Amino acid sequence: MTQSQTRRAFLHSSKALVALPFLESLGLAKTVTATAATAPKRMVYLGMGFGVTADTWYPELDEIGRGYVFPKILKPLAKHQDDLTFIQNLEHQFSNDGHSGSTFWLTGANRYAIAGQSFHNTISADQVAAEHLGKDTRFTSIQLASQSSGSNADGHGPGLSLAWNKHGKPVSALNTPVSAFHRLFSDETMPLEQRQKLLDEQRSVLDTVLSDARSVNRKINKGDADKLDEYFQSIREIEIRLTKEEQWLEVPKKMPNPALKAPEESMEGVEEMRMMFDIMFAAMQVDATRVLSYRMPVNSVISSLGAGISAHSMSHYSAGERRQVSEMRDRTNAKVLADFIDKLKASKETNGTSLFDNSTITMGSNLRSVHSLGNCPTIVTGGGSGIKHGRHLVMRDKKTPLCNLWLSQLQGSGIDIKSHGDSTGNIPELFEA
Fold it and tell me: What is the pTM of this model?
């Protein structure tokens, strides 16, 4: 055994190997990063990379309230004007990366908040919602992305999805329509007894992990004890997930009516994005989850529309082809969202309301345009959080925290929290007729 191997400590069981986090005290090397009378509330977050075509996407600043002229570039959404809210002058005070449209979008965190660390994040709004709205569904939350949006080339920045857990760690996503479809709607082929045995084995591994880790805990300093405590919390999250999986073992997955056709492997671009929206709608129909997020692609979308430039090049528009492609991207996003709203309005809950009536949907970005991080593009729709729609709102304070919106939506959806991220309070105007 080499010296480097002897410096590695693992927690063993007869079936698995789980690595401890890096602990300076022991010189351990980190190797693994380790759910009616009242219809339920649902929340959907749609994140755009590289922002928007700023001078044509927003309503005019002097047209506040109702009766504003709807932006021509977003014409597909105009039929839903009475059910939309545009909000201007929202931003994240700590934003400093002009290529990160979604990393801190739902968190509002300061990446340099911890001395000596180059990156720090906190829990995202969707995961706060999931803790409260996801208790009674098979999936506490669902994160969607695309293979293209997983790279900085799409203007999203670091992360695996829009979601970050309570420790500020990235939450993985389903990156293709095929993986999302089968995860949500395909029944397991493994026999029930075998699935139960597998869960039991996973629990056995966790028991061994916790026992060995607690023995390590007696030999380390305060700093490493904090790291190990975070590790224990991660193990606890796995325990919660296993318990939930066990509760749903004998419950067959539901397919929406009419049935959603399984997607093809070759989907990409606009076709892929439309299918992801169809999958989100179907998941809401069968109540598979009540919290969804989608890290929307850019490069593959504009390429499928015939553009010959990259998303990054498009984002630095001024005139000519770059501007044309940027506006084409904005119209496409508007069309996909408009179609999604159509379906939500047409789908009825058991109490006679629609999915739209009980959902809160936000489309936006942490990035306005080019490298500008102020006045984050924000459209909100759906009746789930009690927002009075049909208006264009402009915050008096040009530095109103975007987290004030997340706080308002969460509170409006019945979630009892006092703050989120860098919020300074909710936005009363949202709920005033």
Answer: 0.84
